[in-house]
Amino acid sequence: GINIVGSFVLGTLAGMPTVDPAAASSLDQRRGITARSRLCMGVGFCGSFTTFSTFSVDVATMLGKGEMTRAFSYLALNNVGGVMAAFAGFNVAKRILSR
User: Which tens digit of pLDDT belongs to each residue from 16-63?
Assistant: First the structure.
């Protein structure tokens, strides 16, 4: 769930080209994101939004309850889904900003 959404957002940020705000004379010419903005949104927003520790505790709780199938399914779906969402976000950003 939340890790997949966060992976998509982070993938979108990673897929956006880096721009120099001083080089663009208007906002319309900035078809991308500054390095500082990428860092702030990637580490700040996505870091707090996708609390991986919560995911880890959820898996550990399921394992502690003996819910092996559920725990490993949750683990696999979040990891595969997260990578797929990051890849999708990366490509969406590339396509939108290459127009």
Answer: 888 887 776 665 556 788 889 888 988 888 888 877 767 777 888 899
φ and ψ at residue 33, rounded to 5 degrees: -140, 145
Q: Are 30 and 21 within 8 A, CB to CB?
A: yes
- Give one DSSP letter per residue of 64-83, joined into a string: HTT-HHHHHHHHHHHHHHHH
Q: Using CA atoms, how far apart are residues 4 and 79, in angstroms rounded to an integer?
A: 8
Q: How far is CA 33 from the centre of its chain?
A: 15
Sign of CA dihedral 51, 86, 80, 73: positive
Q: What are the tokens at 57? A: 């505790």
DSSP structure class, residue 22: T
